[in-house]
Amino acid sequence: MTTPAELEARLRLHVLPDLGPRRFRRLLDAFESASAALSAPASAWRSLGLPATCAEARRSADTRERAASALHWLEHADHHLLMWDDPGYPALLAELGDAPPLLYVAGNPAILETPQLAMVGSRRASRPGLDTARAFARSLAGGGFTITSGLALGVDGAAHQGALEAGGLTIAVLGTGLARLYPQKHAGLAERIVSQGGAMVSELPLDSPPHASHFPRRNRIISGLSVGTLVVEASPSSGSLITARLAAEQGREVYAIPGSIHHPGARGCHQLIREGALLVESVEHILEALRGWQAGSSGSPAPQAEQDDHPLLRQLRAAPLSSERLAQACGLEMSETLAQLTELELLGRVVCEAGRWVPCDA
Length: 362
Prior knowledge:
two-stranded antiparallel sheet, alpha/beta, 18 helices, nine-stranded mixed β-sheet, about 45% helix
């Protein structure tokens, strides 16, 4: 349990200039707590290879004020802060070497542990591209996936809207602080995401404005939270391709929807397919890929007797567990555990309640 003093110290560290996730962890590994790091001499910080700007700013009035503002923000019932050593920190994201040390969450933090599929694409998508994104999100969310995207104009917005239309869950990961919503055109969409049980997420300090360097950082969280990433429409220079390549580096699946060879917005997807992404023409192609561990190439469900004796179900009948605890109990990778949970959820055998999985026949 993080003490109030340690929470305030971590928030102060988090707003320091030039202190990214790896340096933040280096500090806590060296001093064992944020409180100890703040009180350590500047020479100790320099010995860790940290910039002088970090050591100089840690005791400034601005740093204290921004931490105090974050504590005030957290007083709201729908506002949360997840730290990488919290039990509720999303397990798939924790696998990343540069996992965010702190995640601000507006809405329901428990859904960060549900099986997620990232959907990304062009900000200037064509009307058919937007319709495709909306339809895929609607079907996938209706089938039990949480749809994760970046709240941007274009494909991101269409993906969030499709998930909401299906009565499903969706997560928006921002490239700004949660108190500096961007783009403002999607303020209403952001409110709907939270009010319908979803979440807004950012690793950035609350008052962080839009900046070009923030969005690649945001993209690694989108892919890192998800079992796979679907690219709907993108040019070769699109940031969506960054997200897809990050997903591949993180060991996650990458899916791409093809288009006309005459449409510039399809070229990024075609490039991904040439690089090994799975060509997707229907939602079933994604579901078949995730079912591969169980049903082989046929895509047919396992027999009822096999489902009843499923190792995940055996564990959950003993006690409800989070995704991370279930993976540990069964000796599985998190990505495989979430894929299996998704299949069982689609079959109506399990459900996620308050961040823990329970069998429907319990």
